[in-house]
Design goal:
Arc Repressor Mutant, subunit A, two-stranded antiparallel sheet, 48% helix, mainly alpha
């Protein structure tokens, strides 16, 4: 949680580790004092977070008394909040931080995370909509969706090399979610085979999903009139 009423977000006794790349790659090129302060703060604050996915809300920057006082002494010409906003924009442009923006109750909210593998995975999941609002302006990630390979193996049958190749081709051909939905329909119809799933996907591709173009049922194919 963010510290409120000007308190410090980062615990005084908490050790903070900066990666060696910070000193070798970032420190020589950051020429803005506000960006430097914000970058160091973000690195430290993210380490105070718990869980597999760690991010900072924008208000967790503004609510930290030490950070905002540190920005305020840089110049009298701009408010500390404006310096913070500009510093975060520079850090995102430099890719020392990653940002994802979402809309909750009509309000745009920004979330910042580290520019590492975990941060990129978090950013992608937020951008994909794999989240839901939580209390106090937080968001929580939805449980990871199983891969189509796991879905097939759990619901249809053994993953043979031929089936794996077919699933790879389908992933590259059809929109996200179609394969999962086609597998679900195959299970509901007790048609647990790839041929039936492929027929559903091909039907959606030709006629529109759910057959909305011709009022046809999902997975139902046109009769072959060539015979």
């Amino acid at each position: 949680m963010a510290a409120r009423n000007g308190k410090n977000f980062i615990g005084e006794q908490q050790p903070v580790a900066l990666p060696a790349s910070f000193f070798s790659d970032l420190l020589p090129v950051i020429d803005d004092l506000a960006e430097l302060k914000v970058t160091i703060f973000a690195q430290a604050a993210l380490q105070q977070k718990e869980g597999d996915y760690r991010f900072l809300r924008f208000d967790e920057f503004t609510d930290d008394g030490s950070l905002m006082r540190g920005l305020a002494v840089i110049t009298d010409s701009l408010p500390a909040r404006d310096l913070l906003t500009t510093a975060l924009e520079k850090a995102v442009a430099r890719e020392t931080l990653l940002m994802a923006e979402v809309e909750i109750e009509g309000e745009a909210r920004r979330y910042f995370t580290a520019a590492d593998d975990s941060g990129r995975a978090l950013q992608q999941r937020i951008q994909n909509g794999d989240w839901r609002p939580a209390a106090d302006g937080e968001i929580e990630l939805l449980p990871p969706r199983p891969s189509i390979y796991g879905l097939y193996e759990d619901n249809i049958g053994v993953l043979t090399p031929m089936i794996v190749d077919s699933l790879k081709d389908a992933e590259a051909t059809y929109p996200p979610g179609w394969i999962e939905e086609a597998i679900r329909l195959a299970v509901e119809g007790n048609k647990r085979n790839w041929r039936y799933i492929r027929a559903i996907l091909e039907s959606w591709q030709q006629e529109g999903r759910w057959g909305e173009k011709r009022g046809r049922r999902p997975g139902r194919r046109k009769p072959n009139r060539s015979r």
